[in-house]
Fold these 3 entries.
Entry 1:
Amino acid sequence: MFCRIGIMSPEFTLRREPSTMTVVEQKTVACLGSSSTAGKGQAFDWIAELRARPRNAQVKFENFGVGGDLAYNALKRLPAVLACRPSKVVVWVGGNDVLALVSRRARRFFSISKHLPCAPSPGWFRENLTELARRLKSDAAADIGLCSLCPIGENLDSEDPFQKELNRRVKEYSDIVAAVADEENCRYIELYEAIAEELRASPGQAFTSFGFLPFYLDAFRVLVLRRSIDEVARMNGWRFHTDGVHLNSRAGRIVADRIQEFIDAC
């Protein structure tokens, strides 16, 4: 009956149109660094911030942040990074290298706890960062983003000897990161420049000494008393940091925005 009315005739044959759906391939972004990357305790979790953004729905973030790591330690952990087969790698190291150089107390602690084979120096930092970038490029075939350091303390023009030396070294190490990124054809992610611009517009207090007790106290406030990192920042008198070293949400979101630009780039 259907044939008689022409439904099955050739001109009425149903045709399946080619699908216009596109399969979006998930990309993996590996984030290698220290406590500022781990995002635990009093450090803002910028990776969680990026995960929550709708534009990153097809991005898988792998967190390879370990508290206290220097560039030397991050280099030792490259096999784990390579194993996740990343398409992009964000490397943010150097803050602990600077602290270990400027503070004898920090240097003793890191030398023992992180099994450092030699005294920290700008040359050793550059050597480790260069090797890290080269191995990632050769073994991962991934786009590499090298982050400059964020300022420690909030007064870039301070005359306090400790803060002044921190300012000098953070800038020096950030320049090293920029040079290595240029030499090894990596993307340079301007974290130092972004935060420093904010601090120059509105300077805050100086970071005048390094001690472990304040860090332990702030960790207790966050992990046990359940205070937010921004509450702890206000208690300590910081506007961009929680404790002078780790970033609060205000600066942490600036970091996330700069790294987002690297993720979005083809």
Entry 2:
Amino acid sequence: MAYSIASKDNKIFVHLNGEIDLERSPEARKVLLECLENTQHLVVDLAEVDYIDSSGVASLVEALQTSRKKNIEFALTNLSDPAMKVLKLARLDKVFKII
């Protein structure tokens, strides 16, 4: 998994790339939680995610829960087909704000 971070209009954008699986999800979790320390708006771009498993989804859910506790706006954007399929299968497409 690779990632990039950008900032614009008081928002942080995290672009995740590649596979987010058991091996790589700890890094995704760390990046997302660190970004939540520095913003009131976090947008996670999943356009280039080729594969995501339950551990990757758990990292997203933990970031969402943390954002809610801290009253931070959290959204997913540009979901790749594999990412959207997994979120729909888990019925999390209704839980996350998707823009």
Entry 3:
Amino acid sequence: RTSDGGKTVGTIEVNLVKMGELEEGETDHITADTQDQKCALVRECTATEGMSGKDNLPSLNAVLRNPVCKLYRFPTSDNKWMRIREQMAETTLSFHVPKELINLHIKEDMRRNQELKDLGELAPHWDNMRKSVIAHCDQMLSMYQDTLAELGKHTGSSFKSSCSKGEKTLEFIPINLHLQRMHVHSPRLKDALYDVITVGAPAAHFQGFKNGGLRKLLSKFEAERRNTGYQCIYYSPENTAKAKEVLSNINHLQPLISSHADLLLSSASQRSPDSLKNSLKMLSEKTELFVHAFKDQLVRSALLALYTARPGCVLKKPAVPRNSAEEGDDVQHPDHPSQIKRQDSIPHHSEYDEEEWDRVWANVAKSLNCLIAMVDRLLEKDSISDVKEGENEPSAADCKVLHTGGDWYEQLYPLVITLKDCMGEVVTRAKQSMAFVLLQELACGLPQCLTLTLRRDIVFSQALTGLVCGFIIKLHTGLHDQGFLQQLHTVGLLVQYEGLLSTYSEEAGMLEDMAVGISDLQKVMFKVIEAKSEDFLPIITGRREHYIIEVQLPGTMFELLPQEIKEGKLLRMYPVLFNVGINEQQTLAERFGDTTLQENINQENLELLKEYYKLFTEKMPPDCLPHFQEQNDLKGLLESLHQNIQAKKRKNVEIMWLAATICRKLNGVRFTCCKSAKDRTSMSVTLEQCSILRDEHQLHKDFFIRALDCMRREGCRIENVLKNVKCRKYAFNMIQLMAFPKYYRPPEGTYGKADT
């Protein structure tokens, strides 16, 4: 470029005899002929180009910002030249996704607080408990609102630097999130694209790690909550999750049913048979889902528990559970297999009619049946004039059939009102009972449960932001790959995280946070929709533990998708995490500390990976994926990964290489993470890139180390360091690097003292 930053005026080709430090013993393989040793690096500062060429798409450029591009030329084993374009870009999603999530948290928490207030009159003990819970929840709600307001003021860069990881106002934002891309053009091989998402490990840095991370904190909290006698009823995590699901279904289905009922009446007023049939079909489907949601023992038990919490209720035995040590085995109601532990803590009262609830929600089904019968009669009479009026009538016990000679609207209106009234009674009772369950959950763990919820929200926000970025980029690159698209809607998407955290001191807490955050991504579903405007940013809906991400594509790209995806099929994610600490702190953990955390995480995620592979082999044809029948078959790679995890070898980076290879062969999304995605991550992604060039694109074996040093010295990752700490130095020193595996050490002159 010109000196004033104007247009590009040319390129500079640098021929190097020596690039970086040679590994010991390699000099014998390098000839003295400088022509054979030529490696060319063309530095390219083309920020205005964006993700150029076929990647230059409005929908992709909507989420990618400030690209850094480098061009390389390396020799192949047959003395040809390969060209490599290395790119790095930050993403607008770094702030968009967390803001969307926090906004959903605020709405969800406000709705929950209102549901607690709507419980009605409670006995003094329960009422005081409710007031305490609402007060704590209001404080948490205020904090979320303040955080959202602060994020709304943010302008400038679309990424959070490593130096800002401890800032409270930015704690929901992922650290140093970037796309790292390598585009390879080989003389005799097909062009190839390789993507890795680099991001700091999802962790609550502002909260700190004095007491560990989420994995340890959640386990400890649940054990204390289960084993300590509280002045409330204990519901298991599964039951509280079920209560949240029931409430969510109510809030989702009730307005839908009401809307479809109104459409039914509108069709009736227009006397449109086809429209009436369609409206009835939709109304029936949603009402059946609504009724099914309440066929659960938890709802019945919670209604009984709420009854005993009303003022003036005289109990045969106290509602407060005894300590678990005194209780012995859980007691279950003889008529129903209980889903609630310590069922004897929920009293039974002779005046409470347990069958009343069955009658209430059964009335919804009966009302729907009356409506269906009436519509059938109206349509039949409309089409066949000589049908007897009494045929196919519902029984008089179920509904009162009106004379069918009059207006359709007039005859359907009272039945619709009855359906809505019955549904309203069910909603009121079910909402109160499930809100009472959530009251127990919150009251039994104040304030720790809210603190843990905050921490989990922070970690999940960081993890989800990276996942959304990875999914969108993978979708764009795979739009013309029919095998990938079939795999996406048939099996789901594999998302593989490579962790480089140690299991020593604070990084162990980070790893515990990261493990839970990535595991929580299993509950996220994706849906691809056609964009209706020029705004291609994703839309997030749902609640905690059940989010749907709607990814928008332009019409021309949307048409390339299989019919199943176009019709809105939800796409599953299969996140897996494999961690191998590589720094000097991991040396301390291996010799004097404990590596059990890493071993357990790797073993657990190996099982998840095997589960995904099993689904893949069951649901996909064997010739679907281009890599499936390669010499290094997936089954052998999985077995090798299993053996390496079982071996418990120190700093066994073979685990990461195998996991990454399996992920690529299964069309997955790759992530690489360390504390800040700056130094160790840079060593890992550059090693991965050069390994791919060697193994897949015939990079000359004598130039592997030179290419590796070249990328680390002059490539995109040193630019990432500069973006984060305003210095072109990886934050390593000589003593630290002595503990690093051989191929994870940067070349001389590229490391030294730097703030991180």
